[in-house]
Amino acid sequence: MSKVNTEKSVFESWKLGNLTLKNRIIKAATFEGLAQGGVPDERLVQFHEKFAAGGAGVVTVAYGAVNEDARTFDHQMCMQDDRVMGVLKKVTSAIHKHGAAASLQLAHCGMQTRYSKLSSKPFSFSASWGLNPYGLLAGIPFMRPMPEKVIEQTCDDYAISAKRAVEAGFDMLELHMGHGYLFSQFMSPAYNKRRDKFGGNLENRMRFPRLALRRVREAVGPDVPIVVKLNLQDGFEGGSTLDDCIEASKIIEQDGDASLLVVTGGFSAKSPMYLFRGPSAIKPLIAIQKNLIAKLVYTLAAKKFPDMPFKEMFFLDDAKKVREAVKMPIALVGGIKSLANFKTVMHEDFDGIVLGRTLIHEPDLPKIYETGEQSTSGCISCNRCVAHIDSDDGVICPINVEMASEAA
């Protein structure tokens, strides 16, 4: 990676491997909630096309489960289900129509699952034995160590899913190694207590994620960029630390299978607000629940998910330490909202800017910033959009809905 000139604009094209991207703005993989019964519909096409039309250089479709038991939610697509392919081809076509690249995030939930048809109930697979409060409402109160034969099969499932994604027209892939999902569980010393070759020191704890990454690279060949989403910190005592992330980044760079790191943070089951910052999403989540038992459980759990102070670019200081440690391309996520933020991230030698809530509120923001019409976002980081992962209507910005209603 060549050093980014401080005068270079986030709006200029750049190359990630052999793929030319029209700018450095990446729409983050934010779970859409638009696959009722496990099959996405036309709403997924409309959801992602607006980000491409709004000027993002890369649009990432979220959370493609690599097998049936890799799902967190019932309304989540599985990449080995033939029924998803037709809609995904429409998604990539819609994204390409506006000159953007299409990326698909591949993931496995591990113990972070509420999938009602999980074949291993009442256990979910993870790195080690333990209780699983995350899955309690779905009758999955325990987690157990994933056996080596299942680890091998899961790596194959990643490869199969990656090939299917490319067949559907995706230009890039993202492997989720953060936020407390399966790979994150294996990498976290708080969850990985194994005594076999998949546990112990960091290199061993990374063995499974690295093996899956290698299988994906072998499956899609050298020309498809692969993004790795990696935690800077888990955000709770005993979890993965910044030092772990720095060493993990060095290992990933040395392996040579990944094209880009997206550095993030937080652990959905333990420290979700470390990822989002700002007002807790638990109150709006309680408000939209239709199940009274779910309402009660979320209400009782509310104290464990307190508000967390928000500041713009809240991962920047940690990410700069990773930037100093490796030469491979890195993109930054986390509270990047204003045009001034864009310039700061570029000045600090990052290669891409990853936007989630900001673009959910204003899909056209890249074009608006590029034309100079405005330089700040209207997103207030209220986190109400996060609660809508459980909604039948999928993820929306409630503020936009309210504004439209008032204007009608």
TrEMBL record:
MF (Gene Ontology) = FMN binding; oxidoreductase activity
Q: Keyword set for this entry?
A: Flavoprotein, Oxidoreductase
* SUPFAM superfamilies for this protein: FMN-linked oxidoreductases (SSF51395)
Cite the NADH:flavin oxidoreductase/NADH oxidase N-terminal domain residue spans from the record. Answer: 10-254
Gene3D superfamilies in alphabetical order: Aldolase class I
A matching Pfam family: Oxidored_FMN
Q: Does the keyword Oxidoreductase apply?
A: yes
What's this protein's name? NADH:flavin oxidoreductase
Species annotation: PS1 clade bacterium
